[in-house]
Every structure is written in structure tokens, then in C-alpha cells.
From TrEMBL:
Protein name (Swiss-Prot/TrEMBL): 4Fe-4S ferredoxin-type domain-containing protein
Statement: the UniProt record of this protein carries the keyword Iron-sulfur: yes
Pfam name, any one: Fer4_22
InterPro entries (UniProt xref): 4Fe4S_Fe-S-bd (IPR017896), 4Fe4S_Fe_S_CS (IPR017900)
Length: 345
């Protein structure tokens, strides 16, 4: 990995240089919260933010994606050419970069790449920034507290400087042209190590570190714990909407007025929706909320791991904030902790 050092005061120049070619999407403040939004000036950006309400996934996987257009009168189908912008996702935390890596595994797989996702991803630069964990963060337990691949630049804060990890030639050239770039010194590397250690020590110790989660998921598949969670779940889908790695979708045909022409669309869906597992004939093979919550947690902490060798949940903690009835992977970790304590008695 190539590292360079820039002053914090140089970041506005970097953003200005990026804005010459790209739409820049970055964390901005909205009242007490933060969201990703397009910005036109560096002063709108909040680089030291705890987390955003929702992840930046909508910029790669829009909530409504037209797949093709049709004309029933002419019996004709037209390929849809998406409007893909050159864009920079600026100030993305490591957990969200890992979340995008997980989406890449699904939608940018070499065997069956999704052309819509792939086009957005190819047009996007990612500039990450280091962070300090909030009380709901557990990316450290999901092996996502660092982004290894998946970014063009990563700004690691070391006091009034950034140690910049460089991930692409395109971004390196923009950085070099816009900023006073220096070689990293031993003092910078030592400062980086101290910052990393400070972050590691700041994670909420009340979120238990559980080993062998997939095995425990299998062992407690029939436990009444899932009924208890299902009894609470409101089926509101807030968890899926804010999650960087929820990618379930539905396909629908939308007709124009006159009902002759229209478009086929891919729209976000969620496995917590009551109708998500409804099939032809009206049978619903996950009709109970407990089955749906359990399915979501299994996919996050077990199923994806079996096929992609890493957990789908990146521990961003957003669902723990969004869920009004306190259902999240953190609850599952606490359940396993209780079970472990019972076994020890
Ligand atoms: S399941 Fe929750 S904590 Fe895990 S990645 Fe999704 S929103 Fe974040
Ligand atoms: S787990 Fe929580 S956020 Fe998700 S659907 Fe149920 S009530 Fe809504």
C-alpha cells in the first residue's frame, strides 16, 4: 500500500479538484443527524461525523432502478440506458466501504455482473475517512473496522494531518495535483498506530465479542428467542432501508397513463416485509414475524459468510438506532452471551 501525508488544511483543495470532474457526495449535517448528500462546497461537509442515518448504497443501487421500457401496443422492449454520473463518495467510513465490497460480491460478481450496478460502481470514486466508534458501532467484531481494498483514497486522521492510503492511480493523480503531498515519515507511522489503537479501545465494551457465531446460529435455530423478537417486530423495514448491505429487491411493471407503455423496475424490498416470501397461490413460507427476523439475522451473520467467506453485517450499528423495538445483531450477540453464561453455571 502506498501512503502519503497531507495537512488537514489541504482537504478543501482536494474536494475542489474532485468537483471539477465529479459530483461529490459527502456526509452533511441535518439537524442532530448526518446524511450523505451531494455538496457544492467543502464547507457543507462534516468529516468528523459519528455515522449517517442511512448508508451511501443508494448511489450504487438506487431505490428504484428502471431495467427496461416496453410498449405493449407495438409489442416492443427497449433497453434502458441509465443516467450514470461520475461521482465521488467522499468521507465514507471503513464499515461502509466493506459494505460496498459485500454489494460488489453480489452485483459485480465476475460470472453474473449486474450491468446497472456495475455501471454506477465503475463511475464512482470512493474516498474513505477514519472515524471513532459511537455506542452502537461493532464493526470491530465483524472484521470491518478497516477497509483494505475498496477505496481510491483513504484519509487516516493523525492530528492535524492525514496519512492517505492510495488505492487508485486516478485518485493519486488528483491528490498530487491538488495538495502539498509528502512522503510519510516514521513519526507519521507511529501517530497512525496510536490513532488506530485509540479507535480500537473506544469500542463499546457492552457489545459482546462472540466467537463462532455461525455455529451458534445453527445451534439455536429453534430457540424461543426468535419468537420473542418476532413478537416485537413491527415489519417496518427501517432496518433494511438504513443498512449498507441489505440488497433484497422486488421487480414490478409500472404502466404510463393509457396503459400502453411502461417500464420494468427493480425496487428495494426487505425480507422483514410480510409479503416478501409470498409465492404464487398465496402461500407465504415466512408468514410469521419471528421467521422473518430470524431469516434476516441468519443472512447477516451466517448465510452470506458460508458463500462469500465474510459476514454480510459490517457492524455499522445503523439498524440498532433505526429499530424502534431494539432488534439488531447486537441483540443476537447479547443472546449468545446469555446462553454462554447459562452453560457455564
Ligand atoms: S445489519 Fe445492522 S449493523 Fe449490520 S450492517 Fe446492516 S444496519 Fe449495519
Ligand atoms: S427489526 Fe425493527 S426495524 Fe426491522 S422491521 Fe422489525 S421493527 Fe422494523
Amino acid at each position: 500500500m502506498l501512503y502519503r501525508v497531507i495537512d488537514r488544511a489541504d482537504v478543501p483543495s482536494l474536494v475542489a479538484a474532485l468537483m471539477e470532474r465529479y459530483e461529490v457526495v459527502a456526509p452533511v449535517r441535518r439537524g442532530e443527524k448526518y446524511v450523505f448528500a451531494a455538496v457544492s462546497d467543502f464547507d457543507e461537509i462534516e468529516l468528523d461525523y459519528p455515522s449517517t442515518v442511512a448508508s451511501p448504497k443508494k448511489y450504487l443501487m438506487p431505490a428504484i432502478q428502471t431495467l427496461f421500457e416496453f410498449d405493449t401496443a407495438a409489442n416492443d422492449v427497449t433497453d434502458y440506458v441509465d443516467e450514470v454520473r461520475l461521482r465521488v463518495l467522499f468521507g465514507v467510513h471503513a464499515c461502509d466501504i466493506n459494505g460496498i465490497m459485500n454489494l460488489n460480491s453480489v452485483f459485480n460478481d465476475a460470472r453474473y455482473p449486474d450491468p446497472y450496478y456495475a455501471a454506477h460502481r465503475a463511475a464512482t470514486l470512493i474516498v474513505g475517512v477514519s472515524c471513532m466508534p459511537s455506542e452502537h458501532c461493532f464493526c470491530n467484531l465483524m472484521d470491518s473496522e478497516e477497509a483494505r481494498p475498496g477505496y481510491d483514497l483513504f484519509l487516516n486522521a493523525i492530528g492535524d494531518k492525514f496519512l492517505v492510503s492510495i488505492g487508485s492511480v486516478t485518485a493519486a493523480n488528483i491528490l498530487e495535483a491538488a495538495c502539498d503531498v509528502r512522503e510519510a515519515t516514521d513519526a507519521d507511522r507511529i501517530a497512525f498506530r496510536a490513532a488506530t489503537r485509540a479507535r480500537q479501545e473506544a469500542f463499546n465494551p457492552a457489545i459482546p465479542d462472540i466467537q463462532e457465531i455461525p455455529m451458534l446460529m445453527d445451534a439455536f435455530h429453534e430457540d424461543g428467542f426468535w419468537d420473542e423478537l418476532g413478537g416485537r417486530c413491527l415489519s417496518c423495514n427501517a432496518c433494511a432501508n438504513v443498512c449498507p448491505t441489505c440488497y433484497c429487491f422486488d421487480i414490478r411493471d409500472t404502466l404510463d397513463p393509457g396503459a400502453k407503455t411502461g417500464r420494468r423496475e427493480r425496487v428495494w424490498d426487505a425480507c422483514t416485509s410480510p409479503q416478501f416470501a409470498m409465492v404464487a397461490g398465496g402461500h407465504n413460507f415466512r408468514s410469521a414475524p419471528a421467521q422473518r427476523v430470524r431469516h434476516r439475522m441468519y443472512h447477516k451473520l451466517n448465510g452470506f459468510l458460508a458463500t462469500h467467506d465474510r459476514s454480510l453485517c459490517v457492524g455499522c450499528g445503523r439498524c440498532a438506532v433505526a429499530c424502534k423495538v431494539d432488534i439488531s445483531p447486537i441483540e443476537v450477540l447479547r443472546f449468545f452471551e446469555r446462553k454462554g453464561a447459562e452453560d457455564a453455571e
